[in-house]
UniProtKB/TrEMBL annotation:
<dbReference type="InterPro" id="IPR005552">
    <property type="entry name" value="Scramblase"/>
</dbReference>
<protein>
    <recommendedName>
        <fullName>Phospholipid scramblase</fullName>
    </recommendedName>
</protein>
<comment type="similarity">
    <text>Belongs to the phospholipid scramblase family.</text>
</comment>
<dbReference type="GO" id="GO:0005886">
    <property type="term" value="C:plasma membrane"/>
</dbReference>
<dbReference type="GO" id="GO:0017128">
    <property type="term" value="F:phospholipid scramblase activity"/>
</dbReference>
<dbReference type="Pfam" id="PF03803">
    <property type="entry name" value="Scramblase"/>
</dbReference>
Length: 313
């Protein structure tokens, strides 16, 4: 099932190139770069490399799963990532739940890769119609050449979503999908939107590095450390209100560095001066997919399915 899909990704890449509160981790790591600030395509602050910017290898990740030689590290070195869900026409017109597809970009709109939900054929397609938002899924993060950089996996979830992020092509007898990076666990609340984010720290042990506790119908999902400072954030950035009413597409801005919060102090405060590690960034990227499934799918049945109301906090 995968080979035609990856071929299509490679063709698209060629065309694109041709056209141009449990256990807390008490260790905090700094990641500071010298950057030039420009205006991003999605209303974000983009920071291009300057002479004082060395490389993402200065992003601290002690004891982490992702090494700086992994291709995934190059993508996670971006201060800001943007993912956009592609329009699902059968879902739009017929209500037929299709496998999700996302474009992965930097803040200037340059394509970095894809996030593709695996489509295992007719049987799985039928199961998607039955389980809807509760369905198990596997999403692969691909670069522009179709290489799998990370795998996001969720089992069937009746209430709380629980996803894991894996680094593929790493032999681990416990997990067939590769080495476990970390996980995001939804915490049920009647109206608030809550997640706990964990980094794998050993065999079957995790360190919590952040928590999300957003208000009713909120579009902003800041990740707060134990001391209350903001480490990162996922923001639902609507393309256009009229378009959102009739399509199943959406844009999510993922902020993973203190630099990406500059100019947004009125919305995000206080921001931690310490950057996220590579493993933490990978978990936050996986969490953005979970947020899309849990609250912004056209078939969301819980708080957040509506598009006409929101809460200002």
């Amino acid at each position: 099932m995968w080979s035609p899909l990856i071929r299509s990704v490679k063709i698209a890449a060629r065309q694109s190139r041709n056209n141009c509160s449990s256990v807390w981790n008490r260790r905090w790591y700094s990641s500071r770069y010298g950057m030039k600030k420009t205006t991003g395509r999605y209303g974000t602050d983009d920071y291009s490399r300057s002479s004082s910017y060395t490389s993402f290898m200065h992003t601290s990740n002690p004891g982490g799963t992702i090494s700086h030689s992994d291709p995934l590290a190059a993508i996670l070195s971006q201060p800001t990532l943007v993912i956009q869900r592609q329009i699902e026409y059968m879902n739009l017109f017929l209500g037929f739940e299709q496998a999700n597809r996302y474009v992965l970009m930097d803040s200037m709109g340059n394509q970095l890769g894809w996030l593709l939900e695996r489509d295992f054929g007719f049987t799985k397609a039928i199961m998607r119609q039955i389980y809807r938002l509760h369905r198990p899924f596997t999403v692969d993060v691909l670069d522009n050449y179709g290489n799998v950089l990370m795998t996001i996996k969720r089992p069937f979830s009746f209430i709380n979503s629980h996803i894991k992020a894996f680094l593929p092509n790493v032999i681990d007898p416990r997990y067939p999908d590769g080495a476990l990076i970390g996980e995001s666990v939804q915490s049920w609340h009647l109206w608030r939107r809550r997640y706990n984010l964990f980094k794998a720290s050993g065999e079957d042990t995790f360190d919590q590095f952040g928590a999300i506790d957003s208000g009713f119908l909120s579009w902003e999902f800041p990740v707060r450390a134990e001391n209350g400072t903001i480490l990162g954030a996922v923001s639902r950035n609507f393309v256009g209100f009229a378009r959102e009413l009739f399509t199943d597409t959406g844009i999510y801005v993922i902020r993973m560095d203190p630099l990406s919060f500059q100019g947004l102090e009125d919305l995000y405060y206080p921001v931690s001066e310490k950057g996220m590690t590579l493993d933490q960034k990978a978990v936050l990227l996986a969490n953005a997919v979970s947020i899309d499934f849990d609250y912004f799918s056209r078939h969301s049945s819980g708080p957040g399915a509506g598009l006409m109301f929101w809460e200002s906090e």
